[in-house]
Amino acid sequence: MAAEAASPLPSNTFPTKITSIKTLAESPGLTSIPSTHTFTPDLHGQVTSVPEASIPVIDYSLLISGTPGQRSEIVHELGRACQDWGFFMVINHGVPQKLLSSILDGCKGFFDLAEEEKQEFKGNHVLDPIRSGTSFNVSVEKAFYWRDFLKVFVHPVFYSPTKPAGLSEISLEYSQRVREIARGLLTGISESLGLEGSYIDKALNLERGKQIFIANLYPTCPQPELAMGMPPHSDHGLLTLLIQNGIGGLQIQHKGKWVNVGTHPNSFLVNTGDHLEILSNGRYKSVLHRAMVNNKGTRISIAMAHGPSLDSVVSPAPELLVSSKGDEPAAYIGMKYKDYLELQQSNKLDGKSCLDRVRISAV
């Protein structure tokens, strides 16, 4: 006897408690989204397309093993990318494509777990080492994002969910490889500011630096024009390295307009964070970015955030406040990274609202 077809979900009837967007998106017959997940269309703003070639590309192999001339040129390009875009793409980084595919598959396996299994890892506090959930911070949001997430602290102490099988081993290898790249990039960025290559590493104690693994699931959405994967925001920390599963949705703000960023196999998309802006006294800007959703396929992205040690107080580098042209006033007050992290993660995600709290207003 054939199984009965599942009854379609009426467009105005939704689960009373939505624990994951994946469950909602897979509801039979879903043709609209709940009002709790609806954003006004004008939130999407003006979007422009830029030629792919205009997004800065950094050849990592030249940074770590190029000739002195090649390396000098890459350091210069890194500085320009951080100053003009706050965003760049890294190629020839040495991480095997197989590892990139394996970690994306491992995260898909996590999101495919039964809801009660994922609830084992939901966490309660923003500094819990493993947290999974939906949206960003449902306790303070009026409208929820079309996103499920898994956030895991992977350095200086490595954590991982125990499910699915194999994820822990893959994420350990992936985290170590990406952390090595991030520290190499930060060495080049430090030099681009006219500082010693090891300056950022030592000043912010990156040996104990916080590395956070963030997997994002953006399911197919029946009304993508009304939903938002993640709102415009900047990241805490220094650098975030992102990979995705071939389905685009990332937009960055450049010169006041939103720019679609395509998908590029075997590359990392890198954006600068608030603490690089603070340390550089505003020479380099953290970039506003957001995640859009679509009705064509499920997008998975993995962001690896790299920050100072939790007890580091981040303030503008004193060396950048003194020059032959006269002293430059500090544009930001110092704040312990742990306090900043708690502040951002405990509130609504809203542009650069956290950065504004440590910005010193010009008199």
Automatic annotation (TrEMBL):
Output the superkingdom of the source species.
Eukaryota
Keywords assigned by UniProt?
Answer: Iron, Metal-binding, Oxidoreductase, Vitamin C
Pfam families recorded: 2OG-FeII_Oxy, DIOX_N
Fe2OG dioxygenase domain segment(s): 208-308
* One example GO MF annotation: L-ascorbic acid binding
Q: Which InterPro entries match?
A: DIOX_N (IPR026992), IPNS-like_FE2OG_OXY (IPR044861), IPNS-like_sf (IPR027443), Oxoglu/Fe-dep_dioxygenase_dom (IPR005123), Plant_2OG-oxidoreductases (IPR050295)
- List, alphabetically, the PANTHER family matched: OXOGLUTARATE/IRON-DEPENDENT DIOXYGENASE (PTHR47991)
Tell me the protein family, please.
Belongs to the iron/ascorbate-dependent oxidoreductase family.
Stated name of the protein: Fe2OG dioxygenase domain-containing protein
Lineage, top ranks: Eukaryota, Viridiplantae, Streptophyta, Embryophyta, Tracheophyta
